[in-house]
Amino acid sequence: MELEFVIACIGVLPGVSGGGETRVERPYFDDVSPRNVSTVVGQSAVLRCRAKHIGNRTVSWMRKRDLHILTSHIFTYTGDARFSVLHPEPSDDWDLKIDYVQPRDAGVYECQINTEPKINMAVFLHVEDESHNPAPQPPVRSSAAAATIWGSQDVYVKKGSTISLTCSVNVHSSPPSSASVLWYHGNAVVDFDSPRGGISLETEKTEGGTTSKLLVTKAALTDSGNYTCVPNNAHPASVSVHVLNGEHPAAMQTSNRASSYLTSQLSCAAFTYLLSSMACR
């Protein structure tokens, strides 16, 4: 009788089954991190998420305003290279890092575990306008470290074609990160998740440094302007992009050369006249 009572008690103990097997614990969030995070425009933000007992399940981060999956496991699913996941093995931390935070990044982000039903934890990111705060100090750059955009300083593309800009930096970032190079169109950071779509970035690390390639498909007239490649540890480089609506760039360049030639001819004539006047005296 006593033996039967002991067996019955063991069968109801937490984590132990009557057959001697340990019950698998369900995943949950270790809610010890702040649910509200504040940062300043241009700085980095880290949204913390600690997921316990996930087993073979996957932790993902989703941006609530557009339901965009940003990361899943250790992989990034956005063309915006500012986003990355921090997961030091073998920890339970799955933190979302956002580099060079912009005002549009403010809002709710959800850390999710793909259980059935799915469980999630929301974190709110508050972004303070830099106009109300001291400007962040620019990173220290070596005088020899510089970015170079391949090709001419003026790039001509037809409307509807693809703008392709390649920027090479002769130093490595430290620590290595795909977000070590930012692209600006005018004064704004290029938004890879904008409703326009068709904008992507390819970053490659080599022994000689970093190469960043910006692709803008289906070029529109509004895509014209100044594009700047800004490394976080080197001097930037810029080019001017002209999206043509039927004009031919060769004709524009020929016109410019003709204008320069006429100007030089007039200058020579004026100089010749001046010399002849002095000789007559």
From TrEMBL:
SMART domains: IG (SM00409), IGc2 (SM00408). One of its GO terms (cellular component) is neuron projection membrane. InterPro entries: Ig-like_dom, Ig-like_dom_sf, Ig-like_fold, Ig_sub, Ig_sub2, Ig_V-set, Immunoglobulin_dom, Zig-8. SUPFAM superfamilies: Immunoglobulin (SSF48726). One of its GO terms (biological process) is synapse organization. Residues 27-122, 138-240 form the Ig-like domain. This is Ig-like domain-containing protein. It comes from Euphydryas editha (Edith's checkerspot).
